[in-house]
Prior knowledge:
With about 375 residues, the chain is an alpha/beta fold. It has helices at about 15-25, 50-55, 65-75, 95-105, 115-120, 135-145, 155-185, 190-195, 205-215, 225-240, 245-250, 260-265, 270-285, 290-295, 315-320; strands spanning about 5-10, 30-35, 45, 60, 85-90, 110, 115, 125-130, 145-150, 295-305, 310-315, 335-345, 345-355, 360-370, 375-385. The chain folds into 3 domains: about 5-155, Rossmann fold (3-Layer(aba) Sandwich), CATH 3.40.50.720; about 160-265, N-(1-d-carboxylethyl)-l-norvaline Dehydrogenase, domain 2 (Orthogonal Bundle); about 270-385, Nuclear Transport Factor 2, Chain: A, CATH 3.10.450.50. It is built from 15 helices and 15 strands. Strands 1, 2, 3, 4, 5, 6, 7, 8 and 9 form a 9-stranded mixed beta sheet that branches. Strands 11-10-15-14-13-12 form a 6-stranded mixed beta sheet. The chain is elongated and about 85 Å long. The structure holds NADP nicotinamide-adenine-dinucleotide phosphate. NADP nicotinamide-adenine-dinucleotide phosphate binds near residues 12, 13, 36 and 113. This is 3-hydroxyisobutyrate dehydrogenase-like beta-hydroxyacid dehydrogenase.
Amino acid sequence: MTTPHTIAVLGLGRMGDAMATRLTSQGWDVVGWTRSGRTSGAVETSADPNEAVAKAGLVLLALFDGPACRQVLDEVRDVLRTDTIVLNTSTVAPAEAAKLARRLGPSYVHAPVLGSVPAAVAGALRILAAGDPDALDRVRPVLETLGTVRRVDDASTAAALKLIANNSLAGAVLALRDSLRQADALGLSRAQVLDVLELGRLGGLVTAKRPFLVGESAAVTAEFTIGALAKDMALLAAASNTPLRSAAGLADASADPEADIAVAATAPAVADAVLEPLRAYLRGHATGDPTHFREAFLPTAHIEGIRDGVFVSWRLDEYCALFPGRPAPDETARSRRIDAVDVHGTVATATMTLRHGADTFTDIFLLVRADDSWRIANKAYHRHS
Ligand SMILES: NC(=O)c1ccc[n+]([C@@H]2O[C@H](COP(=O)([O-])OP(=O)(O)OC[C@H]3O[C@@H](n4cnc5c(N)ncnc54)[C@H](OP(=O)(O)O)[C@@H]3O)[C@@H](O)[C@H]2O)c1
């Protein structure tokens, strides 16, 4: 068992370049290649992946996704010896990782990494490594140059754990976005808000990403892009076949996919226009005046739910007839809030909670933007007694 000394790093993007730089600085012979032909300051590069692979006993992949891994491996198939270790640090789907492991056999090590560019440069990545014990022993000195190693049973599990880890990162970005939106709505100063957030659970993220959060992103290079994290969340949602809010949350960020993930936390709150019919609906309840419901709903709307165990579907006229034109006697004790609004181009969904005396209602709305204004197309509700 010997550790190969020459390493071909295929993919010199953010992570590939940082890992190649770290390995070079620690005395490994590195030859890099990347599709675009871009060269790397500290690392010898080749214009031909076959040339790079032919020189190496270990091939480290730092590619965007599973299809990129397949394409690059196809390209170097003829020069890849059976005893050449392929160490894949890319974040791919569990099924893609399993397929690569089957294709390359005992010389394949799947090793997705936790941590970004600064951790790679400092040799402080956390690496989830899965592979044949012999191959793992051979690559261990290389992995330990890049960070600390946690052994995982198989490639598919390593890939799945990596996606779960990134889901927590996506959740943190979206939690930060919620906090910044609420703070903006309260008119608080961004600098003051970030100072306070740095003291709490999101502190590490806020400290690391502060320039992006104060609008200085042009001056700083993206370390981990919205596009890459959105790719990971799409892979997770597809693999789990279970709803995943962070997948939609990042896809909706309306920011440049090449921007750093922190820029997604600065995406503006939902536009006032989509809130207008929801606010008219709230006024309808507060005043008991059905005119507000006619403003809020499309004339074709239906209001639907289960009443006394039976499904009821009211047309808008029938619904409006339920309101007497004056507030309910206990109006001052009632409360209502908009819980969520998700806009997708010309359609949106919204959820509200209404506390009316002993009853709490969950209202779910479908909205559409027609003729440049938003209206509620339909409402369904549940009455919690
Ligand atoms: N950045 C992070 O903080 C971070 C942290 C942990 C894990 N990861 C994961 O690590 C991997 C690399 O991330 P990154 O941030 O370095 O991404 P990146 O900067 O976008 O680099 C992606 C690399 O993949 C190459 N590539 C993309 N599509 C290709 C294709 N079809 N054929 C050949 N090469 C292709 C690019 O080549 P060219 O640019 O030369 O065209 C580039 O070298 C991803 O799987 C990512 O999810 C990233």
